[in-house]
Design a protein that fits this description.
It is built from one helix and eight strands; from the N terminus they run αββββββββ. It is mainly beta. The termini are far apart.
């Protein structure tokens, strides 16, 4: 009698093999490079300000640094973590220690010099007010009564005439004098 392998049994065997593979240290998540990791952040856009909230659990307010250079906001927090000995007995190590950093490009139209930061219960809140937008205003157009004097652009051959003159002189006449030819 020939026994055929069970499809269900093969799936169970494959699952066990995959579990063993992903339990291998090679496939575990790698620790952040040199103790620097990213921080979770929310950005809220209101009509008056841009609000950034960053989660910094376990960080003291004096260990937070906020800076702006050009249009880039940089948040750095935490202290350099002391290395724990390899024989510390960790079975699972998920709590990260050390410095955390995040840089964000800010949009145009913010007054970073008026920013306000607060820190409470592990949440940093940074409020950056928006600059007042130029408001559209109507400019009244007045009608000029009558031109009192018109000055034509100067050319070497043409004399300057004022708007008061009623007749033009003939070529060769003095400027401002009417021709007497009839």
């Amino acid at each position: 009698m020939v026994r055929r392998p069970s499809t269900f049994g093969e799936l169970i065997s494959l699952r066990r093999t995959m579990d063993r593979l992903f339990d291998d240290p090679f496939f575990r998540t790698m620790p952040a490079a040199r103790g620097v990791r990213r921080m979770p952040m929310d950005v809220i856009d209101t009509p008056d300000a841009l609000i950034l909230e960053a989660a910094l659990p376990g960080v003291r307010p004096e260990d937070i640094e906020v800076s702006v250079l050009g249009d880039v906001l940089t948040l750095m927090a935490g202290a350099d973590a002391a290395e724990s000995p390899a024989h510390a007995g960790y079975e699972v190590r998920e709590v990260r220690r050390g410095r955390v950093s995040r840089s964000v490009t800010l949009p145009q139209g913010l007054r970073t010099e008026d920013a306000i930061a607060s820190f409470e219960n592990g949440l940093l809140q940074l409020t950056i007010p928006k600059a007042k937008l130029a408001e559209r205003r109507q400019i009244h157009i007045s009608v000029a009564s009558q031109a009192t004097e018109f000055v034509a652009p100067e050319t070497p051959d043409a004399p300057v005439m004022s708007g008061d003159e009623t007749s033009r002189g003939a070529p060769g006449d003095e400027p401002g004098q009417a021709s007497t030819d009839a």
